[in-house]
Design goal:
The complex is a heterodimer of chains A (224) and B (289).
Chain A lengths: L1 E2 L5 E6 L3 H6 L5 E11 L2 H13 L11 E12 L2 E9 L9 H8 L3 E4 L5 H10 L2 E4 L5 H5 L2 E8 L9 E16 L6 H25 L15
Chain B lengths: L2 E2 H17 L3 H13 L3 H19 L12 E7 L4 E2 L2 H15 L8 E2 L6 E2 L7 E7 L4 E6 L4 H4 L3 E6 L3 H15 L7 E8 L2 H13 L9 H14 L15 E9 L4 E9 L6 E6 L4 E3 L2
Helix pairs in contact in B: 1-4, 2-3
Classes of the chains: A alpha/beta (224), B alpha/beta (289).
């Protein structure tokens, strides 16, 4: 782990070790190098679970690795698969599968957007795994850090559903939004918003009962 | 003269393609305003990153998001124009042309709702919605591709004789349920009244209104203003980084109904995909945005 060119941004190489994952804290920002396995497929997650239950080998070795919820499209140039774009998808879609996948494969990092549920957070705490959040809808900038697609597995699936191993270089910045100690930025923000709601509703009530100041002639003003 | 199948086919193709590579001007301006007012440092950085990504999409001719969503078109037909050819077919074919030619290619996002099978086409795809403009001899088409990230959090509830407080509390429930999942800062639309389906359509159309415009009814405009302030007090912030900017706008519309009051709430993510054009009866096409 080192500091990137910006002093407050870490430079991390994937896959992380469990020890490295445990040193990271909520809100840490990082640029990522190294290798990651990517998929955006619901069916892919079902298939990983089915394979684990049957004791079958996965087409790519995910043990101790980084798995990101991202969709991607690539083109072939001079024998290499170069990304047109990659972009995160919503991780909570896979909440039913991820606790098992994290525990069985001892993942050390997961990435995507929108975070993951409480059971995933608990699995990550047990195994020493962090969640990297990346902004959705910022494909042109994020894609610049996805250098090459190295290999894919389960090629019978459509492109964005395959398990795809990418090489990253200065990918991000990403933010540690769930740490390996059971802390989740998403849970914190939900609790904060729920705590603020009674006051917000009281303020809405007050705003409703306060008539807007009316100046003479306003009744005739054209409505915008 | 008449508006032909071919002109509409080309329009359906162009609108969808443009929408993938440009964040609307009003939205970029709203992101810049939000950055000025944002007090959270991580949130401010996220807003800066978003603006840089929006500029890169436009100047480098790249997709803002990898999720191209599915095509929805809102079509307003002037009552004095003449149509020549199969109009619904023109949208189906225009979208197929886009899939065939767009660079870089888009992924398979059209999903069968029961088998979850993916493809580039499907039943009722693109989603089309028609309305008329009395006395006009032109047509206006708005395209707003819808992706999973923000689409998933829309909600609708039917009330009987609700108080405004109940409607606003329900709106806030929807906001809290979505949290930061829908790629904030979002544009939120709410449709109140009419029928079940009309409330949903009003909510969607409300998200398409330009940021900075107010509803013409002062009572609704005041509701938009206080709800926007309320959403931004929740503290989810841009992409869930905390901070002051969870929504760029709240747009509300209403319709008279009959005692039961459907209330629909939906969200557009920060890239707020929306393009529009006008086709005159002589076939002249003017891009509106």
């Amino acid at each position: 782990m080192s500091r990137a060119t910006q002093p407050d941004v870490l430079r991390l190489t994937l896959p992380l070790s469990t020890e490295e994952a445990r040193t990271l804290h909520l809100g840490d920002m990082a640029l990522l190098d190294g290798e990651v396995t990517v998929t955006a497929g619901f069916v892919t997650h079902e298939r990983v679970i089915a394979a684990l239950e049957k004791g079958e080998e996965l087409p790519l070795d995910l043990h101790g690795q980084a798995v990101f919820h991202m969709g991607g499209s690539c083109r072939q140039e001079n024998g290499k698969w170069l990304p047109n774009y990659v972009n995160p998808t919503t991780s909570t879609r896979f909440d039913a599968f991820m606790p098992t996948i994290i525990r069985r494969l001892r993942l050390t990092s997961v990435g995507g957007k929108g975070g993951m549920g409480a059971e995933c957070v608990e699995a990550m705490r047990e195994t020493g795994c962090v969640y990297f959040s990346m902004p959705g809808g910022a494909a042109p900038l994020l894609s610049a850090g996805a250098v090459e697609r190295l290999e894919t597995g389960w090629d019978d699936l459509i492109e964005q559903f395959r398990l795809a191993r990418y090489r990253l270089e200065s990918f991000g910045p990403v933010t540690v939004a769930i740490d390996a100690h059971g802390n989740s930025m998403y849970r914190n923000l939900q609790q904060q918003a729920a705590g603020r709601l009674p006051d917000i509703l009281r303020e809405l009530e007050a705003a409703r009962s306060t008539p807007k100041p009316v100046r003479p002639g306003d009744d005739d003003a054209p409505l915008s | 003269m008449a508006i032909t199948y071919q002109v509409i086919r080309q329009a359906a193709h162009d609108l969808y393609g443009w929408s993938l590579k440009k964040v609307p001007d009003d939205t970029q301006k709203a992101l810049a305003e939000a950055e000025k007012n944002e007090t959270g440092e991580a949130s401010r950085k996220t807003l800066q990153f978003m603006q840089a990504a929006a500029r890169a999409a436009e100047t480098q001719d790249r997709h803002a998001c990898s999720d191209a969503g599915f095509p929805t078109y809102f079509v307003k037909i002037g009552t004095k124009l003449t149509l020549d050819g199969d109009i619904r077919r023109a949208f189906v074919d225009g979208f197929a042309d886009l899939v065939e030619t767009v660079e870089p290619p888009i992924l398979k996002f059209i999903t069968h709702p029961l088998t979850l099978e993916r493809s580039y086409e499907g039943k009722d795809m693109p989603i089309l919605s028609f309305d008329v403009i009395d006395g006009a001899d032109y047509m206006e088409i708005t395209c707003s591709p819808k992706a999973l990230g923000s689409g998933r959090w829309a909600d609708l509830k039917v009330f009987s004789y609700p108080k405004i407080a109940e409607i606003e509390a329900y709106f806030m429930d929807c906001v809290l349920k979505a949290g930061s999942q829908h790629c904030p800062p979002v544009i939120i639309g709410m449709g109140i009244g009419g029928s079940f389906d009309h409330a949903a359509k009003m909510a969607k159309l409300a998200t398409l209104r330009k940021i900075g415009t107010k509803h013409s009814d002062p009572m609704i405009a005041a509701m938009e203003e206080r709800l926007l302030a309320a959403v931004n007090k929740t503290g989810f912030g841009p992409m869930g980084t905390g901070g002051d900017t969870t929504a760029l706008a709240v747009h509300v519309d209403y319709a008279h109904g009959h005692g039961f009051v459907p209330v629909a709430v939906c969200f557009n993510c920060w890239i707020n995909r929306r393009t529009a054009l006008r086709i005159d009866n002589d076939g002249k096409v003017t891009r509106l945005e």
